[in-house]
Amino acid sequence: MAIDPTTQTRQLTTYLLPDLIPANQKMKGSAVVIDILRASSTICSALESGASAVIPCEHIETAQLTRKDFDDDTVLMGGERQGVKIEGFDLGNSPRDYTKDVVENRTLIFSTTNGTRALHRCQTAQRVAIGCFLNRSPIVNWLQQDAGPIHLVCAGTDGKITLEDCLFAGAVAEGLISRGDQLDMNDATRLCLNLYHMSIQHSEGIHLRLLESQGGQNLQHLSMEEDVAFCAQVDVLENVPVWDSGLNRINND
Question: Which residues of 88-115 are buried (b: 16+ CB within 10 A; e: fewer)?
Fold first, then answer.
């Protein structure tokens, strides 16, 4: 059941990079990991397409060792380094490739440059979800099911802040505010919210922002413009992937 947003003020903290999370901080409440281009979008797409689970691995070697625990017909290896599919893996990091006929009933072992690293920085949170524009409203609904603090963790790119992740953090904040939530926001959240408000003044604002972002430019250089357009879609998925840090598995909530 959703909480009553009028009963209390909730703390909403946005971290523009995973490294900005204090090393000794224990997260209370709910965390949303954001890597719009493209890990978040790919994980959400894979699970919506019927993947049994996603096992996120920070390192390629860890993914390869994990692979040995599965039969060939039950598992797929997915991921990238610097935007390019990892050698020997079945799939890269394009959400368009994770279709039902490819991933249904398969466990996905997944490793990316930034997204899986950001996820593992959230181990102390009570609940951890994966968010992107594709499932924005379901993420807002999920956050309203609990009255605790909210942490929005932007993955960034190679230790640098990324526009696309900040834009989605602002979209989540706006989604909560529009439903009447009383939020105590840090300045990073306010910056993201202002970015979102400016962007949506144009009908194609989200797509245009993603194209001009560093992540978007990187994908264009790799001739992956269609991934940018795909990830700019809003509310086309209904699922909320949730990470069980103890089992290191992501499943639909």
Answer: ebbbbbbbebbeeebbeebbbbbbbbbb
